[in-house]
């Protein structure tokens, strides 16, 4: 009867076709979990589909979303970017113990695919996105310049920067009042100091302003806009967007400036060059022969320059904003600083325990590298974490999967930190082992931040000098936004000179 009635046959065939289509689209929409069987099941899924995940990864609210996922879905969850990535490839890892274990394993490599946007920002391959020989020499050179052995030189340069910045921006007589866009101003000052410390180059105010503005456009285009819309990455089609064209011009201008910095260094006498530890080591003869020549050297210089200012500048800005909101702590800190010494350049100033706690708590609550990093899990791991239903269970992190470790949710973990969303420097008076384990604003391990000693020293010196001699008040607050780093723009503070 089936064979005889063409209408029925058509109906049957189209039902089967519709079913296949539905099954196929289900497969395409949701992907498939790995077929491999594990004794302990894989981590729970985030519950967000491809589109939502993709949208959040390119958003200026990425930090808030990673925190929401950790708090509502679990500390280790699968992120669905299928079909861009196969299922069970990318896990958000917000559990401090597991994150540390992955980062500290010397065989945890960076997946190049996910770091490539840095190369687009620098206009050439730079070492943050590389593994193997390509990263070793520049990283070692950075660590030589930014070290305890070089501390006196770093301190002298940081104080020179503060002298000039205070003179240019704040009042000098008791009661003098000045207002500053703190994020912008601290970026200029930190550009000034990374220039002196890493390159032995004295960036003019105009060069500082140019760098800050250019890098803001570059990070937004390559860190967010191009990631959201991959057509913008295309070398020709991408030129249809005016912002992309502008960002490319900015990259060229920054490369041009850094070329000048390198030339100025090479023009110096041998003795003078030796004093600039980082650049002198970077530019040692033959070191780039096998790894891309002078163009790679320039890309690495831009990486140091870009990574070394915006992060630290915003950390100092967040600390000042919190000190404005917590006037009692600001007053207490000022007293501790004045009691320590009368000389603003005395090393005792940065020995203040409250100052150290203020910097530490700011790095916790406002970790500027909020998006963190990604590592390939080198061996299968069995871990205990949230089951996604309010309990805990054992689970398997498969070998070769990618772990995304984001400091923002990690440093606000509510099992580790009491009142995690509040800025409470006193919590570090009696830090628990769990707090110490979780504290990784610079990440840890082989590829942690090589600039962290400079970042902390600079934050301490700037804050000591700015809080000792000025009373700070919040005039206008802006909302933090993420684009490669967590930025506050347009926050206005008022500084009144103290007698
Ligand atoms: C508060 C300030 C800073 C914070 C929070 C911070 C944070 C970080 C983090 C979390 C990473 C690791 C990213 C990853 O694993 O993918 C990193 C890498 C890096 N940071 Fe920093 N950083 C700061 C300041 C600096 C400074 C002052 C420099 C100056 C040179 C710098 C240079 C670098 C470089 C070159 C890398 C790449 C290292 C590598 O790939 O081996 N950072 N930073
Ligand atoms: C990220 O992508 C979504 C969807 O395309 C868009 O609505 C959102 O504005 C993007 N975020 C940013 C910061 O561009
Ligand atoms: C380096 O020296 C050359 C030749 O003396 C000079 O033309 C050039 O302007 C100098 N460059 C910088 C950046 O100082
Ligand atoms: C830290 O411990 C000391 C000694 O036990 C105590 O006096 C102090 O109040 C504690 N501080 C905080 C913030 O809990």
TrEMBL record:
The membrane-spanning stretches of this chain are: 12-30
The record's listing under InterPro entries reads:
Cyt_P450, Cytochrome_P450_monoxygenase
Keyword Secreted present in the record's keywords: the answer is no
**Keywords of this protein's UniProt record, alphabetized?**
Membrane, Transmembrane, Transmembrane helix
Has keyword Transit peptide?
A: no
Family assignment from sequence similarity: Belongs to the cytochrome P450 family.
Name-wise, this protein is Cytochrome P450
